[in-house]
Amino acid sequence: MRIGRNLEEFDDPIELREDFLRRLAQGLSRNMSPFERDDIVKEVRTHLVASSAAFEELGLNSIDAMKEAIERFGDAERIKRQLSEQVRPPRPEFLPASLSIVVSFVIGGVLLTLADFAIYLTGVVSHPSEGSWMIGGVIGSMVGWAIYRRPRRPLVSAVRAGLIVPSTLLVAVSLLNGRLPDATFATVFLVGIGICEFAVGFLAAHAIHVVTRDCHRTGRPPAALE
Amino acid sequence: MEYGPELLKGNIQTLVLAVLEAGALHGYGISKEIERRSDDALSFGEGTVYPALKALEREGFIVGTWDNPPAGPARKMYTLTETGRREAARRRDVWERFTQTIDRVLGRRDGKVMGCA
User: Do A109 and A11 sit in the same domain of this protein?
Assistant: First the structure.
C-alpha cells in the first residue's frame, strides 16, 4: 500500500515528493518529538532526491524518476509503522504495574492494620494506631512495585544489603538503648522497616539500572552526566 | 535469484552494520551498497533501512550526523560506534554458526549435498 494520492495524478516531481513526505510525517507516531519527525522527513527527502537523480541519469524524465524513487522506497505504510513502533511507550506494562501497586497497597494496608490490632489485643499498647492502614498501604505498594520490577542483578543485592544491614543495626542499637519498649515492638518495627528498606533497595537499584543501562552498551557515561 | 522479505526479516540490521564497517554512509548509500554487494539479489524497499537505522541508533551501535557538503543537499551520515563494531562481529559470528547449523540439518557440507554425486 502506498501513501498519498495516486502517483499518476502528479506532474510535478517536487509536489509529488512533498506530498509523499507530508503524509509520511502525518503517519509518524505522536510520541516522536517534532525534532525526530523533522529529522526523518529531511532524511527521506534527501534519499528521494538522490534516488530520483540516479533514475534521471538512466534516462527517465524528472517526474518519472521521482515516481520510480518513491516506488523503490517501498511500502511507506509499513515503514512509518516500524518507525513509530520504536518510540511507542511500554503501555502493556502500565496496567500490570498499576495493578501490582494497587493490590499491594490494599494487602499491605489490611495486613498492617491487622498486625496493629493484634498488638493492641496483647495489651502492649493502650489503643490501636491511627493511620496504620495508610502506612501499611504505602509499604505494600512499594513492595508491589519492587516485586513487579524483579531486577535480577548483583547490583540489586548489593544495594539491598547496603540499606537493610545498617537499618537492622539501627533498630538493634535502639532496642539496647531502651528507646524501643520491648522485643515484640522491636520485632514488628524491624520487620516493617525491613520491608520498607527491601522496597527502597529495589527502587534504588532499578533507578541505577535505568540510568546506567545504556552505558554498558555504548561505553558512554549516562546521558544526564554528559 | 531474489530472496523474499521473509528471509530478510530480522537481518536488515546485521546487513546495515556490515556495510557500515567499511566506513560512514548515508541511508540511500547503505541501501545501494547492500544491493551492490548482493548483486541485486537482496530485494527490499530502500526505505526499509530507515527503521533499522533508527533502531541501531537508539541502541547506540551507530551515530548519525548531518553532513553539509559544499555541493548538493545535506545528508545524514551514519558511523559505527565501538560498541556497534563489536555488535557487527557478534552478529556475524551468530550468523555463521546459524548457517552451519542449517547446513547440517539440510545435510550439506561445503555447499554440497552429502551423499550425492
Answer: no
